[in-house]
Amino acid sequence: MMLSGLDLPKPLIEAYGKKGITELYPPQEECVKKGLLEGRNLLISIPTASGKTLVAEMAMHHHIAGKVNKGPSKGKCLYVVPLKALASEKYEEFSGKGVRIGIATGDLDKRDEYLGQNDIIITTSEKADSLLRNNTRWMNLITCLVVDEAHLIDSENRGATLEMVITKLRYLNENMQVIALTATIGNPRLFAGWLEAEHVSSEWRPVDLKEGVFYSDTIYFEEEEKKIKTPAKEDDTNLCLDCIEDGGQSLVFVSSRRNAEGFAKRMAKALEKSGFSDPALEDIQKKLEAIAETDMGKILASCTAKGAAFHHAGMKREQRHIIEQGFRDGYIKVISSTPTLAAGLNLPARRVVIRDFLRFKGGEGMLPIPVREYRQMAGRAGRPHLDPYGEAVLIAKGRDMANGLFEEFISAPAEDVKSRLDDESALCSQVLSLISTEFVKNNDDLVSFLKRTFYTFTNKKSSHLSDIVEKAVSYLEAAGMITKIDDRLFATDYGNLVSHLYINPISAEIISTVLREKQKTLLEIKRLGEVEDIKASDIGDLIKTEPAKTTKSVNPVYSIDSMKQVKSASAKSMLKKTAFTPEDISAVFSDIGLLQLLCKTPDMYTLYVRKDDLPVLESFYYAHEDELWMEISYDTMEDDFRVIKTAMLLDNWISEIGEDTICTRFGVGPGDIYNVVEGMNWLLYSASRISYMMAPDLKISVSEVELRMKNGIKRELIPLIKLKNVGRVRARRLFNNGITSPLKIKEANFDKLSAILGQKIAGQVIKQVEKEYGNINNTEIIINNTEIKKEHTLREEREDKSERRERKNRKIENQKKSAEIIKKNENFENFGNSDYEEEEKNTEQKKKNQKNKNTQRSLFEF
DNA sequence: AATGTGCCCTTCTAGACAGCATGTC
DNA sequence: CTAGAAGGGCACATT
């Protein structure tokens, strides 16, 4: 079947023609035959790289051209992906084909309504859910929904969201065409049944895939055997060397980050020994070295120089991109990777070695990876148009094992997908959103809506769902997120906020319970202050803030006890304006307490605690016991320590401790810092909104931490950071030069400022300060200076592009100048919190002590 | 002297979505 | 409570 023979818009056909694609692959043809262009729902399970994208594009362009009879004349398409990186990848792929493409993820989006002008909108499933929660109007106009990796409906954490997005969208847009792209699944007919879809399934690939098991010196494929030279001792390196000698590249999947790094090191040595080298690798090495601030980065650079790299989530985005590109360009010969590369970007290689097929799971030991995941890895084998074939190889340690691996993975049937909507916490969140958006108005609505879900479709007889729905409703009601008037269900302001913030209702409850507790203490201080007429600062000591008890069970969801506690404080009395001094607030508020609270939330993922961390955590715990907000209890100790460790890292971050120090101190990679900080930013924003509602006197304190987290700065830099064009580095430079506030900038002379910031920036900063402080003569901290920033943006928009270019040039010059000054102020990095330095020394001593005594048992050994 | 090898023992274990409002070095 | 790689420490061999 020829592409040009189909009733499709020309730009699409031409764009593919340019890439040399004029004819449909067999599975694509089948999709067309089964009604792809007639608006039929399809469940398409075909291997990666066999042209799923084109299938989706054909349908979407068809819709956009208004050729599908259902719905409005001009169609609008939503393309749902599981990862942000995938969203960007698809954006690139879809662009330049005559239709308007928009992208909406947590990081990247335009104003919601503006987004709706596009023909195709690419989003993550969570963002799609969020858009639905905000009643985004254009969501009602979707005529074609494409769900990429739709089997992720089975994902333990995120499947429920995807299921609800599909269900809600189908409910909103009755005639919408649904195209679900999945990996091979065990129960496609059931899944297709729910979607009312035709099922298209195929094993066809553009490049042949041979799957086999390696044992001793031979790869045993299904139909052939292949002997491998074994110059090195280890099987894994030999497999890669063999492939490289043949002109290919390989990808090695391992189970842990350390294994990934360890393998890359070994592989680099082996490559060096084999005499392989490529001058192009030097450039890559230089790039990597330039951004390597940690040991890990240096190791990465040195391995990559030899042609072997590793890839995992502890790395910086930048490092990952360099490795990916180096591999795509063919310079890097081997990447050893954790599952990051299996699920993420499309980065094929001739030979894929699945070395570690067991993965550790806490509490259950080593478990074989799911077949679907094996397939996903194996599917990476073979670069279309570049490799004659692809090979996926498992490594066996004995003959029996070889047979076992064949059965376990290669010839094993794919797993079924099942609904994850029965997860209580996920369902709770979804029920709230349904009520908040008025998708449902009462209990009956709720039940009948949920009848449309995959869960009900697959569990027709079970009454389990209605049980947990009931539970969720009563939880939400008790928490004050929804109210029942007669039969009608309404979301309260609080409920709307929680739904809108997109945080788990349980997280919200944990946050607001504790913040209200704190607010209560503040009011108590005030009351005592009025009665006794003593200074508030003295009272801080009088009132011992009891650490809040979180609900203790493993599933803290439905403990009504904590709810009663919350209800006892009247919200109305709290909203009264009260005057508190900063001392009052600091008597009940602490950075580490807040961080601990938010890390305890199910929306935050926490760091793994190693043995070496325990003494550090212990001393930290004793040093800051009073400042902590949450109790550490015996039965949740492991979790509690993870929480403390994560909170500690974040506290380091807002104490301007350098990246490399944090990495070595906590045994994490730069990528982890980024992830943890990012997650905390989001929660801090949510906490500030919740505190505005529940504990208004703490709002400023929370917002301060939020601002510091965003920038990675100590409290003292807050006044400076608010200036445009001043980030953490410039703010610190100003501060170290005695300019500690905007007012000081006003007082400082221009020469001094431009020596610190460069002329251009100095000028801009002075302008801002004059505007703000022109007539005011005080040092009041301005918490919200978005106004200033808004004005700036408007002005910038009016400026010509040529002017911008000029600016850029000047900027470069300034950068050179300021580089010198930076050198002078290098001590910024060492500005670490002396607290921690001391703790570390203590720790070392304690370690020694422990080694000597080796008998000291404490609370801290789990 | 510097480096490699074999062996024992201990340690440790993947990833990543979401809000908001725009711009650091 | 599971499997096994990596890495450190150490003794000893090789360049």
Automatic annotation (TrEMBL):
Keywords: ATP-binding, DNA damage, DNA repair, DNA-binding, Helicase, Hydrolase, Isomerase, Nucleotide-binding
Signal peptide segment: none
Superkingdom, natural source: Archaea
One Gene Ontology MF term: 3'-5' DNA helicase activity
Catalytic activity: Couples ATP hydrolysis with the unwinding of duplex DNA by translocating in the 3'-5' direction; ATP + H2O = ADP + phosphate + H(+)
Span list, region Disordered: 792-862
Pfam families linked to this entry: DEAD, Helicase_C, Helicase_dom4_arc, HHH_5, HTH_61
Helicase C-terminal domain mapped to chain residues: 235-425
Role description: DNA-dependent ATPase and 3'-5' DNA helicase that may be involved in repair of stalled replication forks.
Protein's recorded name: ATP-dependent DNA helicase Hel308
Gene coding for it: hel308
